[in-house]
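Researcher: I'm comparing several assemblies side by side, and this is the next one on my list. It has 708 residues spread over two chains. Same procedure as the others: predict the full complex and return the structure.
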Amino acid sequence: MEQFVLASGTIVAGVFGCVAWFWGSNMALDAVYPARGAGAGQNMRRAAAIRPWLFLGPAILLLGAYLVYPVLNSAWRALHNADGSNWVGMGNYRWLLADGKFHESLGNNMLWLVTVPALSTLFGLIAAQLTDRIRWGNVAKSMIFMPMAISFVGAGVIWKFIYDFRGEGLEQIGLLNAAVVYFGGSPQTWLVTPLWNSFLLMAVLVWIQTGFAMVILSAALRGIPEETIEAAILDGANPWQVFLRIKVPQIWGTIAVVWTTITITVLKVFDIVFVMTNGEWGTQVLANLMYNWMFRGAPDYGRGSAIAIVIMLLVTPIMVWNIRNARREMR
Amino acid sequence: MEGHAGTRSSLVWAVNLAAALMVVLWTVPTFGLLTTSLRDRDQIAVSGWWKAPFRSQQTDFVRAGTAPDQIAEGAIWVIAGNVLDKGEELLAWGTNSRDPGANAPGATVALPDDRTLSVAADGAYRLTSPTAFTETRGMRIFVTTISSPRFTTENFTRVVSSEGLGQAFLNTMTVTIPATIIPILIAAFAAYALAWMEFPGRALLIAAVVGLLVVPLQLALIPLLRLHNDIGLGKGYMGIWLAHTGFGLPLAIYLLRNYMVGLPREIIESARVDGASDFQIFRRIILPLSFPALASFAIFQFLWVWNDLLVATVFLGNTREQLVMTGVLREQMGSRGGDWEILAASAFVSIAVPLIVFFAMQKYLVRGLLAGSVKGG
């Protein structure tokens, strides 16, 4: 009960506080620089110069404290020892370069990076093309899109059940092993079999991200000018040719956006590995490795931060690309 | 083209079939878990969920009663009971693990020491002996049974009451609702300034917002936890609300600005000419018109916060009373790995609300996705 009072209190206080700030600061500004009397013109100019910062103030403060400051602070911590008391220079990074677990994580992240965006985009493209051509397309879209609403942890439970293993001879209750046995194979302990397990974890993320790719690509496909398609059909192109030669080349830009968006998700992937294998049996990834160094056993914030900075560096090219796109958009 | 009517209709068939296959592949995992959460726990362990609607046969053993259960009937001692659970039918039974189906229902077999055992078709067994029983551990009776499908909501009652998921549900709500509402207002004002006000540094700020969109959350954990401790906030709801607000702002500002920029310039210009202040324009014109974008962001933020594990693990405590649902699920995956009835029911409780929100407000979600990504291309 107490927490509800607290929560509703926060909502009311938060909303009221925001309104009070925006309204009150605007009133104050108008009172200090009234838009009338002598010097009204100058006052209006001054007020107009200050007002944007009143509107932006809370957002800038929060963004600064919760995103910009942590990046700088992490960069600083990465140059220090476990508890931040001593300067170690590049020591943590040198340690990373020599650490086997880091190599494994980096390798796995690269594997994820190649596999997940490619498969998600491919399946998304196929799903978009298929569902746009059938009468029950919207229902089908909803169903393929649905995993987007499911948490990574929930998805972890769902898929761990599919990969469940029972000893040979027992009735398999996991779908994958049941299928394997049905076709005459012997059941496998999927999640502890190196390499297989990484790909099976990737399947979970592909399952989630395909809907996202489908929604965006479907909108792009519908935006293709009809004339180009009609012209191709008149020239005798078959459906495959229309799809691969006419449609796909026209949506390359969108495909790139989908690809990079999923790439960012992949670089940060944590929950799925954390709950399904916790990075054991060769499935470690950077985000989970970082979590281990920061919160497990004796925390080492220096090493943890160094790993976080590596993730940041991997994301940076996409960040730059996004900013350049956004700036071009604004012109 | 019309000449190819035959190949065209077969193509239509192929497309329908392929789409159906994809839909099945994408829904089966969730459906399997839902089915499992509604099944009886004994049945989950012995047959796949796809066999849920059918009768299943299984071989297992039950233990007969022990010395305290015996009663004297004239000269002999008797232990009686029943080997069947509700809904089970007896096919065969036995006393030896090497031949668990040796005897038919109703048969009586002789055991060493002049004892006898009979098991009737209804599962009632009678173990007799000329001398008093001294066992402290009952003998094993192997039974082969066939059971009709049993569906139950018991798993749900159990996880909500005794597994702590009820409390976790409340905690998740407590985290999610303020963390969804607070960023909206802050972002809306900032987005308006970035869309419709002229000031130096605006382009730079927009670029910064786009850049901050992709900053990995992991980076923020330790510095913020330290910051919260230093300013006396510690671990708790206030900290997690602020954290989610901060992490959600870039997307909120980006989405809302993109939307507000597209609103018709004439409306805003004419309001300015009529002497409306920026504050009035924002409140009377921009805010109501931006409702679709506000709704899009609200859904994103709601789903994101509700489904989050990492931020909650770090910024809230980890005792039983403080866990959110994703935290409970994670803990159960570690400690009750094989108890699928618990895991399935818990997972379903935790994904039910997002699924409802998803299906109810899909339109806004799709709009938000399109505004957030396609523009960048």
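Model: For your comparison table: Chain A has a mean pLDDT of 85.
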